[in-house]
Amino acid sequence: MAAPARALTPATLGAWLVKASGAAPSTREHLRAGFAGVDSWCARPTYRTDLVAAGQPVLLWVSGSEPGLPAGIHARGQTTGPARDGVMPVVLVPLDQPLLRSELVGHPDLAALEVLRMPAGSNPSYVTPEQLAVLVGMCEGLSRPA
């Protein structure tokens, strides 16, 4: 029996998308500190984490509806090495202005964005190259180097 086709391959990866809860005090502290001292993110070991390599783009999605911290993309960065033992090495920097969920929902080119279709999915999620291009067009800060 042939192995099922994977949703994600190196060719279909535009960026990793890791998630954090807006209700978690650590999320607010990381944002306040500009992610100083953050050098990794928890990731569920799957075939996806086997694809992690240094230099890949990373987006940070904050979930929830906390006052002053709406759901959306709040940081960008890149991987700094392969994922191991449920840990994805990253460097992150906050966006000047987050790209909010409310701006993404209903966008015709982002209807298949995994974090919108399956918000409770585990880390890491992903963004396709085409979706990443749309996101960069909506938020210039996503294209700046980490």
Task: Give the key terms.
single chain; 146 residues; alpha+beta; ph1033 like fold; six-stranded mixed beta sheet; 4 helices; globular; PUA-like_sf; EVE domain-containing protein
Task: Write a compact overview of the structure shown.
With 146 residues, this protein is α+β, with helices and mostly antiparallel strands.
Percent of residues in beta strands? 25-35%
- Neighbour order of strands in the largest sheet: 2-5-4-3-1-6
Q: Oligomeric form of this entry?
A: single chain
N-to-C CA distance: 43 Å
Major sheet attributes:
6 strands, mixed
- Look at the structure and give the CATH class: Alpha Beta
* Overall form: globular
* CATH fold descriptor: ph1033 like fold
Number of domains: 1
Measured as a percent range, the helix fraction is: 10-25%
